[in-house]
Each structure stands twice: as structure tokens, then as C-alpha cells.
């Protein structure tokens, strides 16, 4: 008799989820051609032109801030869509909860706006 019969499928899926990446990387290492130590192959490719300067440049933080604000509001849409589809069944309590959620996001948007995260100069 198994110790935890309810979790047999969970453990099977967990084992499969761990084995698939290991197998994929192993097969890739076996099938991939060997890499040579040629310095020409390890240079940065810039449309056939010799690279100028370093390949690592520092990006400004505003790109990341802009992307972060976008992701936050994109995820908000993902959360609001199921609520909107079942609005009739949920009632006034769910409406109040979503209203609080949207107010918190609006406060965050105002904060980001005042900090200058949305300015592009």
C-alpha cells in the first residue's frame, strides 16, 4: 500500500518535469557539434563589420522601469479578465475587492508617474 496514494500523480508529474530538461540538455550536448577555440568565432557579430568598442554596454534604468510598469499593468489585465467574465455570478463583494485592487494599482501608477518612471527623454 502506497504511503500517500493521493499524491501518486503529483510525484509522477514532478519526476517527468525534472527529467525532461535533463534529457533535453543531455541530448543537446551529445548531438551538438564541438565548439572550436577559434577567436574569430567568439567575436561579436555586427553585420560583417569589425566590432568597435566593448560588447557590454550599460543600459539606463528607465528602460527597466518602463518595462516593469508595463508588466504590472499587463498582469492586472490578466487578473481582471476572469473577474469581468463572471461578474454576474460574483456579486457586490467581488466588485468591492476588485475596486480595492484597481485603486492600489492606480496609487502605484501615480507613484511611478511622480517618480518619473514614465518619462521618456
Could you explain how this protein is built, in words?
- This protein is mainly alpha-helical and about 120 residues long.
- The chain has 2 domains: about 1-35; about 60-115.
- It is built from 4 helices and no strands.
- α2 (about 60-85) packs antiparallel against α4 (about 90-115).
- The N and C termini lie far apart (about 65 Å).
- The model has no long low-confidence stretch (mean pLDDT about 80).
Topology:
Layout: H1 8-31, H2 61-85, H3 87-90, H4 92-115
Helix pairs in contact: 2-4
Order of helices and strands: HHHH
Strand content: under 5%
Can you tell me the number of structural domains? 2
User: Which spans of ≥5 residues are poorly predicted at pLDDT below 50?
Assistant: none
* Number of separate strands: 0
Mean pLDDT: 82
Helix content: 55-70%
- What kind of sheet is the major sheet? none
- SS-based structural class? mainly alpha
Distance between termini? Answer: 67 Å
Give the overall form. Answer: flat
Number of helices: 4
Rg over C-alpha atoms, rounded to the nearest angstrom: 25 Å
Provide a concise account of the structure shown.
This protein is mostly helical.
Give short descriptive properties of this protein.
121 residues; mainly alpha; 2 domains; 4 helices
Amino acid at each position: 500500500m502506497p504511503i500517500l496514494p493521493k499524491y501518486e500523480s503529483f510525484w509522477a508529474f514532478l519526476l517527468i518535469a525534472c527529467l525532461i530538461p535533463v534529457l533535453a540538455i543531455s541530448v543537446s550536448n551529445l548531438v551538438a557539434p564541438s565548439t572550436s577555440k577559434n577567436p574569430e568565432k567568439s567575436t561579436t557579430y555586427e553585420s560583417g563589420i569589425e566590432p568597435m568598442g566593448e560588447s557590454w554596454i550599460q543600459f539606463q534604468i528607465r528602460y527597466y522601469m518602463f518595462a516593469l510598469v508595463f508588466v504590472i499593468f499587463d498582469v492586472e489585465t490578466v487578473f481582471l479578465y476572469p473577474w469581468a467574465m463572471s461578474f454576474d455570478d460574483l456579486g457586490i463583494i467581488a466588485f468591492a475587492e476588485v475596486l480595492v485592487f484597481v485603486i492600489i494599482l492606480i496609487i502605484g501608477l501615480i507613484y511611478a508617474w511622480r517618480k518619473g518612471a514614465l518619462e521618456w527623454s
